[in-house]
Automatic annotation (TrEMBL):
Residues 25-270 form the ABC transporter domain. SMART domains: AAA. This is ABC transporter ATP-binding protein. GO terms for biological process: response to antibiotic. Keywords: Antibiotic resistance, ATP-binding, Nucleotide-binding, Transport.
Amino acid sequence: MDDGGVADPGRGRGGEPGEDREDLIRVERAEKVFTVRKRTGFLRRERREVRAVDGLSFTVARGEVVGYIGPNGAGKSTTIKMLTGILTPSGGRLTVAGIDPSRERTRLARRIGVVFGQRTTLWWDLPLIDSYKLAHRMYRIPDARYRENLDRCVALLDLGALLDVPVRQLSLGQRMRGDIAAALLHDPEVLYLDEPTIGLDVVSKAKVRGFLRELNAERGTTVLLTTHDLTDIEQLCSRVMVIDHGRLMYDGPLTGLHEAGESERTLVVDLERELPPIDVPAPARVVRVDGVRQWIGFPASASAAGLVAAVAAAYPLVDLSVREPDIETVIARMYAERASA
């Protein structure tokens, strides 16, 4: 598949034979089918199958940071659960570092780290440091390496003042940073992050993103990231995969995704007084005016700098901000584009 194009369902990006790369994750025609029973009447239930993952194929090279995105119910978390061995695939084949997750889950656990944004792996009623001490014993991490990794995570994720605080007393952002540290103490080769910045404030998000960039740069940790925040993808990932209804729709750079979905960013402008729609150069356009506030749409693949400079030079500004397109809108436009082709 060419960069910027819609994925070939039969193979993942970079999966062609002969390429000089080490594929740490391989997913080949993976399927996951759940049986659902629904009440249809008195003492009657209807049984049907739900295909959460449907013939999914891709590869991830060692050291890559890949965004794995899609709307709710697309199959993202199901894929990660199969890659960690929590779920067994209904069909196809998955390997991580040459290991079949469903057959050798315990062996694989020493080589991967997992953070689920909605669930914690930390002990709820115990101080944060106790969860780290448990990981030290559970993974049999050498003492010197444990201390080095713990000190590094504490410093970079700003956890020093939180180590003696019970996990239940931590804010969501603090707990998330604590979970990420716990997942990295044993030096995993692969880190799965399922919505790691959900509900975090701006400062916490910045700390998490900075830490992950440094982790990948210094240690070459492979990261598979699911998120609804496109800023996470922009700042961390060189490649993005879009999944919907269990199928891979796109595999390539983020710029190609925006082009495929013809997505727009929005410049929100607050003026000193009510004025007619702002005169902006094409392809930017005013999409809404409400009193002193105006919304200007422009291609997501374009820089906002020129547009901001032009508006600031010609109009009395009070405030402005840039809003990213949501993933659901991008995917909906991709569907519409493919349907009309």
